[in-house]
Request: fold
Amino acid sequence: MTESVGQSVGLPVAPEAVEAARALSEQGSAARHDELVRILQRASELYYQQDSPELSDAEYDGLMRELVAIETAWPSLVTPDSPTQQVGAAPTGTFGKVVHGRPMLSLGNVFDEEELRAFDARVRRGLGFEPAPAPAPDLCYVAELKIDGLAVSLRYEHGRFVQGATRGDGTTGEDVTANLKTISVLPERLRKPATVEVRGEVFMPKAEFARINAAREEAGLATYANPRNSGAGSLRQQDSRVTAERRLSSWSYQLIEEGPDGRPTASSQSEALARLAALGLPVNPDRAEGLDIVGAIGFLREWRDKRHDLPYETDGVVVKVDRFDQQQRLGMVARAPRWAVAYKFPPEQVETVLEDIVPYVGRTGTLTPVAHMRPAKVAGSTVARATLHNLDEVRRKDLRIGDWIVLQKAGDVIPEVVRSLPERRTGAERLFEMPPFCPVCGTAVVRDEGAVRHYCPNPRCPARLSQEFAHFVGRGGMDIEGAGWAVLEQLLERGLIKTRGDFYRLTVEDLEGLDRFGRKSAENLKASIERSRRRPLARVLNSLGIPQVGESTAIDLAGWIAARWPAEAVDAREWTASVAQSLPGVSAEELLEVPGIGPVVAAAIAGYFRAPETAAVLVDLVDAGVIAEPPARRVVLGSGPAAGPLAGKTVVVTGSLAGFDRAGAEEVIRAAGGKAAGSVSKNTSYVVAGENGGSKLAKAAELGIPVLDEDGFRRLLANEAPAGDAPAGEEP
Reply:
């Protein structure tokens, strides 16, 4: 395994991956590096801040390893804001900030026993022991189950719980004291009047996850994806009563406590765990101490199968050097300790029969082949369905109806057909072909020329409509809470909604007639619909499901629209109506002015607003009373380099500003031609600081980056030189 960057982040990378990165030019590697940084930064934000990950753990780890390989091959590409140098994600600003007295680091990952032995070899070298299998009696490991939850820190003073926080970015977390007090296993008072900091993991038990999802399904609400996200989201509720209703639990695994002489009260991890239990804190009994690396491997083998019987989710085993003096000698790296590592359980695989392949019609009309399998238990649950993505993927994996196949759960969550087992064929198996006609509406199926997609072109196809409406009401769109699948299906079946605007024409009486809906449920859903009447233009555009347009493109398009049709002197309702009436006349050539939009996307957007069946969608929403809030006006219309007071600048916003929320300040930065970043690095041009700026101010001071208050920020936006700073447009 390769040293340097890979070891510095606690993540070993195979030499062949590094050689593959070196085979590219530095320019080509830099482009891929930037792409990976964007993907992983977004993934961290979704995982840590929004509790709504898009990537599985396995996908994230694979991309992180690719990034480490590139940075090992090309060390000049390593920057302080690279995900390899970061822990978690910055706090969102919803809660108060807590600066950790000692950083809350992440852990390096290993994925097989060979990598775990390589970790042991590095530890031995660092402590001066002979390589294995030579005995090292002074070296012992503690093995603990890795809990799939949310890391927290709890502060007790004289035995009384006074403050609790999330990990955040490792330096600053969110103050969730009130919510942590609702977790019954965490004591308000310790058994002894100790002043300590305790770190651990908050999680949602499997039974509680099942109970909540059953209740949500009965109420017609969307069910939650997995216990980890549900637990993290529950702990970060604004209303502590909601957290209390979720019945969360916790395990403690780290003690920070000093005696009168200023030295730690415990000399090892095993002593610290015993001390935590003696104080009355919850400590996981499923652990092992006094192990060599062979014993640690035996522990993880034991729990690889037994973990599915636990009442909570675990995705691996953490192996730690037991003695604290040895931990101190081994030290830390950018984002992880050298004395601990997390072994991730491999995806569990089983064999079953592919009984059928059935095409399902999605929101854009795409026909997706779905495997219907003989039900099989994998990673703790019974699986009978898995997406096969497209016909080309079916052919690549050589899948035939009737085949024996290998099934796993990607990241122990998403069912995935790995491969077929041709050696078990009998000759009765048959090839799958896409149907010539839509299985729902009977329209002739079309295949994109040169692409893998088969789709139903009928915009009124019932299958498309249900998916389109689900996208419309979902997060990132109009965000209508309570409009889950069960509700949508009833509204469509009863003819209560035929267009998106019909949502806003529904009455409480319409909703009260739905199955399992009483007066209160109907009033709650109606109130949610009313709250969604006013949304940012980018959200409205994203909710429409325009082909080729996601959240990022919707933001760029909204900025271009605001520049083309200024909203300053117009009522918001009138402005929304004007935009809705004008967009059908916009050409693909004009849309090429939008930064980041190329010919394919421009043609898709223009086609959407010109097509008879979709041209009136936005007009209908305006007629129903929806108001699109304009973003800050963009400075430029051209597709060339951005102009404006922040052209070429990278700006980081920290703390609370009086005149802007975080999203508003970042939109203003982008509108002025700048880049809004989430962390401070040598590439940062300015840091804009409000109240409680936190660790980013210290980082700015360390790097000599200019710090502006809100008045200085406004002067900069007005193309005036902030007091005591370089004139706008010049490098500071």
